[in-house]
Design a protein that fits this description.
- It holds the Pfam family PMD.
- It comes from Gossypium anomalum.
- The structure is a single chain.
- Helix content is 36%, strand content 5%.
- The strands form three sheets. A three-stranded antiparallel beta sheet has the order 1-2-3. A two-stranded antiparallel ribbon has the order 4-5.
- Strand 6 and strand 7 form a beta hairpin.
- It is globular.
């Protein structure tokens, strides 16, 4: 039955790499923020759920070889890494604690089409760029057009600057696309009201987009990968002790900021083959399933991230489709094969819902699986997949601070079409 599920081997990079002498190193991209946010927009960033994220985006450096090695072990069929330690993956807990983004709330959905993106840009930002490419604008235009507010700035100017700042975070750090310098104005439509923006599960949008990008990068002919690669890299460093540089700095929150400092000692493999060899040899014994249980780490996590009882309930479609993430590992197939696909398609403007018969069929496939299939080492006696035990922890709710709310008229989006099942 595992053979029926794993069906992309003829295109997967892990198979292609065994047949060529040159390793594929993916082109990775991140646009760090030039400086910290102005204190004058702190209330708006807190309301929208981006305050912690705004403190991250400086000094991050990506390791393309580490990222390329992880993509070789990623299976699009299950949204998991296949390793000797069995299947593992990035979860909403990782997004929540690494990035400080809210994961409790509604899906970030909507059409990518608009009658007039220029009108949207002018109404919510007060300016229109010379060129709007299919609803996308240049990141450099945002940086050059919106200067940091001062004490003489009006509330409207602060609001527009806050929207532009969040757009730069989304387009440069959280959900960058392969263009490397464009961000879609669809995200601007979610920032009309900062309090309403804080009710969205931005962390789920980042995770679903990262999943989609990793799946798209598994074919051997792909040369680039987008999305929040700093999250992927930080997840690997927290889980694989043998792949992390030594840091003498104390932990800070969000946890991903640990890697923004210069390493005091970094005797790490620099060759893709060496990284893959370490993953093969050491991951089974050294993979850390619960890194956030470390007292030194828990000490820097804000209380609201550990005590909010609603933090592990994510509303995917409506009140009848909430996920209790504390049951993530007892109901693993239902979550990763059903709901994450809904997230991916809804975020990209394509509502998607499996029929009950199809969902039951997929559950049967997963239950009958004998274990993960390792493309580099196929073991006939593989046992049942061992899922990680994540510590229950919560998500932040938006800080409700007083501030003006703009209520402009939002352009009517085109109706969305239902998409057929992908599996």
């Amino acid at each position: 039955m595992a053979g029926e599920l794993i069906r992309f081997d003829d295109k997967h990079i892990s198979v292609e790499q065994m047949q060529v002498s040159i390793n594929r190193i993916l082109q990775c991209y991140i646009r760090n923020m030039t400086g910290p946010p102005s204190p004058l927009i702190k209330d708006y960033l807190q309301e929208a759920g981006f305050w912690h994220m705004a403190m991250i985006g400086r000094g991050c450096k990506l390791d393309p070889k580490l990222i390329s090695a992880l993509i070789e072990r990623w299976r699009p069929e299950t949204h998991t890494f296949h390793l000797p330690c069995r299947e593992c993956t990035i979860t909403l807990e990782d997004v929540h604690l690494q990035l400080g983004l809210p994961v409790d709330g509604d899906a970030v959905t909507g059409s990518v089409h608009s009658a007039d993106w220029g009108a949207v840009c002018y109404e919510f930002l007060g300016a229109i760029p010379d060129n709007i490419n299919g609803g996308r604008i240049k990141m450099g235009w945002l940086r050059d057009t919106f200067s940091e507010p001062n004490n003489d700035s009006t509330e409207l100017e602060k609001i527009r600057y806050a929207r532009a700042y969040i757009l730069q975070i989304i387009g440069g750090y959280l959900i960058p696309d392969l263009s490397r310098n464009l961000v879609h104005l669809r995200w601007l439509l979610k920032l009309v009201d900062f309090r309403a923006a804080g009710e969205f599960s931005w962390g789920s949008a980042v995770l679903a987009t990262l999943y989609r990008e990793m799946c798209g990068a598994t074919p051997s002919n792909k040369a680039k990968i987008g999305s929040c690669l700093s999250l992927l890299q930080s997840w690997a460093r927290f889980r694989f002790p043998f792949l992390r540089p030594r840091m003498d700095h104390p932990y800070t929150f969000p946890l991903i900021t640990r890697w923004n400092h210069e390493a005091s000692y970094a005797r790490l493999p620099t060759c893709l083959e060496d990284i893959l060899l370490l993953l093969e040899q050491r991951s089974e014994a050294q993979f850390q399933w619960t890194p956030y249980e470390d007292p030194a780490i828990r000490a820097v996590i804000p209380d609201e991230y550990l005590q909010n009882p609603n933090a592990w309930h994510v509303k995917v479609l409506d009140d009848h489709h909430k996920i209790d993430l504390r049951q993530l590992h007892t109901d693993w197939p239902r979550f990763w094969l059903h709901y994450i696909q809904i997230w991916e398609d809804r975020i990209h403007g394509k509502p998607y819902l499996l029929s009950e018969d199809e969902r039951q069929r997929q559950l049967r496939v997963q239950r009958e699986r004998c274990g993960p299939l390792n493309p580099r080492r196929r073991d006939d006696d593989a046992g049942q997949s061992t899922e990680p035990t994540q510590s229950p922890g919560p998500a932040t709710g938006p800080t409700q601070s007083p501030g003006p709310i703009v209520q402009p008229s939002t352009p009517t989006a085109q109706p969305l079409q239902m998409m057929p099942a992908l599996w």
